[in-house]
Amino acid sequence: MKATRTVNPNGISKLGKATWISLAVTVFVIIAMASCCTTIDSAAVGIKFKKWSSNAELRGGVEGTCRGWVWYNPITESIFEYPTYIQRVTYDPFTVNPKDAAIFSMTPTLAYQIDENKAVDIFVKYRKPVRELEMGYINTCIFEAYRTCANNYTSDELMANRAKFETEVRARLDESMNREGFIVREFTTKIDPPASLTAAINAKNEAVQNALKAENKVKEAEAEAKIAIAKAKGEAEAQKIQGDGEAYYNRVVAASLNALLVQQYAIEKWNGELPTYNGSNALPFINLGGK
Q1: Cα gap 211→217, rounded to integer Å
Q2: pTM value?
């Protein structure tokens, strides 16, 4: 007996049709599951919230925080993610005016991170991603800190107390940003004064340098004069010592020569005759004893 097989008009068997239906259902389920699942990095915090909710107990519709694999209903729910690792941003220069209305340029670099315990508060209040918060709320905090602190200084005072100024700005940022859930880790500022003040500072520094050079030259001249005086005194003392030595020598030589000259003169005047009486039988003026 032969088996019979029913074939539909399009040439597809019932078994093949069922297989294609199963495959289509499987693909649909996979797509649906993929759209209902997401992952939150371990260095971030996820916020699961309802897109619309009449429950007054859910602030902003927030159901809670999450990490890792998260399942949700994409029709009624959504997941918002905030990184909790340190963010670093360098802003474009701010224009700030101290008390004397000069124009300073401040270029800040900020390192901060979101307080995980306040991530829900940040989401409920701002409902914006990190980059938009940096250009919005955080940008405003920095400018307000600069403006408020700069009003306490004149231009000269600000340049002379830059470290103090930065400390005050950092303190205001800590107060305003930490309160909202942003922890300030580092904050530095490149301060550029107006061109006129820079020129005045350079001129002042040049004048100070020139004065120091003049003072050094005076000290150098004084030192050279002292050296010359000391050298002259030394030469004079040496000459005096040399003169005293020569004078002493001359006196000694003169004293010794006087006795010899007397004897020489007597000999030259002697006529060769011995005196009539000579008790010692010696020639006059001549020491025959060898002493």
Answers
A1: 10
A2: 0.60
